[in-house]
Amino acid sequence: MTIRYEKDGHVATITIDNGKVNAFTPEMHKQLHDIMQEFMADRSVHVGILTGAGTKAFCAGDDIKTPNGAQPPEDALAAHFFPSTDEDTNLRPGWERELRKMERYKPIIGAINGPALGMGAIYMLNLTDIRVAAPHAFIGLPEIAYGMAGAGGSTQLAKHVPPAVAHWMVLLGERMPAEDCLKYALYNEVKPAEEVLPRARELADKIAALPPISVRVEMEVTKKAMDLPKADALSLSAHLYRLQRAAFWASGEYGGTPLSEE
Question: What does the alpha-carbon distance between residue 76 and residue 82 come to, in Å, rounded to a whole number?
Answer without folding.
Answer: 11
